[in-house]
Amino acid sequence: MIKSIGIALAGFGTVGAGVFDYLQHQSDLLAERSGFRFDVRSIVVRDLKKNRDVAPPSSLFTTSWRDLLKDPEIKIIVELLGGTTDAFDLIKAAIESGRMVVTGNKALLAEHGQEIFALAKKHDVPIFYEAAVAGGIPIIQSLRDAFVGNRIESIHGILNGTSNYILSRMQEAGLDYKAALAEAAELGYAEADPTFDVNGGDAAHKAIILAALAYGFWVKLEAIRVDGIEAVTAADIFFARNLGYNIKLLATIRSAADDSIEVTVAPTLISKNSVLASVNGVFNAIAVKGDLVGDALFYGRGAGRKPTASSVIGDLVEAAFALKSEKIHGNGRDKGKINFSFHSLYGTSRAAADICSCYYLRLTVEDQPGVLGKIATLLGDAEIGIASAIQPESLEGSEASLVFMTHQASYGMISLALEKIQKLSCVKSKPVVFNVEAV
Amino acid sequence: MIKSIGIALAGFGTVGAGVFDYLQHQSDLLAERSGFRFDVRSIVVRDLKKNRDVAPPSSLFTTSWRDLLKDPEIKIIVELLGGTTDAFDLIKAAIESGRMVVTGNKALLAEHGQEIFALAKKHDVPIFYEAAVAGGIPIIQSLRDAFVGNRIESIHGILNGTSNYILSRMQEAGLDYKAALAEAAELGYAEADPTFDVNGGDAAHKAIILAALAYGFWVKLEAIRVDGIEAVTAADIFFARNLGYNIKLLATIRSAADDSIEVTVAPTLISKNSVLASVNGVFNAIAVKGDLVGDALFYGRGAGRKPTASSVIGDLVEAAFALKSEKIHGNGRDKGKINFSFHSLYGTSRAAADICSCYYLRLTVEDQPGVLGKIATLLGDAEIGIASAIQPESLEGSEASLVFMTHQASYGMISLALEKIQKLSCVKSKPVVFNVEAV
Fold this sequence. Notes:
homodimer, alpha/beta, Rossmann fold, Dihydrodipicolinate Reductase, domain 2, Alpha-Beta Plaits, six-stranded parallel beta sheet
């Protein structure tokens, strides 16, 4: 009754080791539920001699992903190499050889999804990528399958656990950015080089994948505004809280009235009463608004060995069913379900400068009379409405913070106004601009 | 490129009309994404002459579900008849004829899931039932597919929108039960006869389905404790709040240390800081704890025309893919994926009396000295530890409320102790027992 399927793991970091360990020791339940066992026939590693906490027989190791293609018994390749070079070559070669691919590679899909799925379609090979976004949260299959009938109005996602941990600790414990980052690193929530987590790049990759599922095409990374959390200070957290908001690194994806698609990743003030505002620590959450389903929300661990392995294992089973169907019937595949549908009912992404939002602005200014007036005038000249302004007492010496909450304006207009404002002699540093979203 | 598939709607109430309306007017996006259009060839109604807000050509109507089986072009039957008589006969006949079934019938699955899926397995016909639990929330596919590798430690669900609306309004607006129920009825959130929503029966059906997906067998409805919200008073809401809790009608499903399965539906006090406590109004939410995925949560609209149609449409597409695969290959089906896996890695459900919990007890007693002592003594004799007790000042006349929060005890022990307590002459009515859960 139970069928064994040969697979390979390309990459043996945290997630790869988690998948292997699971398949070795915990796969009875999986076999009962699915009817499949997975036989790991080959593992691609960079360093054959590295000490590992999960230690497969060294006979499984190879340093060349090309070896995987030589074994006809390898039917599914789990790509966990990361990066966009070898991983890209491997996935293309796997598809061309008719092998199914399970991948958690968000960077690769965000940058080359267009080509990968075009090739997958050509060869009728499904790609499985639940692990690429939000770890163990089944947001990919939910958007793709469960919500297939929905026009997606918006998606708001907290998609990077490291950033969310840092912001949560700044919020809860009053830490400043550096202290919170140091704490995250100490607890293993931030990598040795956390740049890509805190600068919004990782969240942007995930946002592009979610936007592609919702709208049927791949938005270019270069085209979207990606701001990280490095500019968020304890003062911002404080001001936001007094105004009734929490600050989150939020991916905002939506269809505009003209059906063009907006994708933004930026620190964003959201009402502290919203469910998303209560998502703390390393957790991820995604709020989806569909015309049928209404408001839906998904919450869970966005990273880590086990949660991500959970998604990889779910995908392995889906791949195995697709494979079984193919095997039984002897010819061709389950044509059409490559797990991404290109279509052109939407089809343009809106330029970052044309995307409208309300904003939180913080400026560091000389603490002297008339400054508020000068800045407010420049905002008014740009037709940017001010919803509220805070000029707290100066904290140190001759500098003060000025905070504005604006009405809706395009990012282009606000950027232009801030360029002018920055040139004022009374303005002492680059203004800080965060979004404000009703979620 | 787009394939048309003949389907039938058995039942044309809120959800059936929603599905029909969608397929008539909004299916371009669905076609682009999935490659399918659905051609409704027949609709089973009870009353041919009824006025309907969504009005299909009367030529589609029939009053006999048997007619659906006569049309070989009907490949998928959407069962929305409700109930467990005609619906059961229809589903069995559909399976036997090799047709795929999409159903939202929680009562039928909870009561006859065992037989239905055994028959489905025999005939290799998948059943799709995302709409049976929590409306538009994709909890069925998430538990079944995405979490297929997980040992599920627990599931906590707010599964009945009517009950949750009533409790939310009691909580937010201080309404009593009757006023909140009347408000729900006025807004269309409670049916003319709301019994099955407020007595826990509906939530119990859904809990049985979730337990079956998690643990591989069908718990008997008769075996589980099902308490509704009719006994919840404004005083309970008040006491719970003062103790730091909200009251929710909660389905609690978990595997005990000996791998037996516990299923309970009861009013339950949960910390007001928990995410589930903030799920208000007609919304549903399900918190899942898996050994791999950790804590995950799903939130959305649990009922209503469009959210439930969203799930039916998702299932139609899944069924269409299964059908397409069958068609292309010409023989047999995608064997093995009937969408429910029986297994016996768990396999017993724990008797309600043996399930342990902490409890909230409220007693109406004579307002005279010594009463608290008598009751506390009886609890102590039964070895039920008291975590806290509240004896508020009496509200009216000679009666007073007494509230206890207990430590862990089995439901059998607490029931026995309360039977004795109820016999005390100073106790004026049946004691109220709610669960207390850390979620």
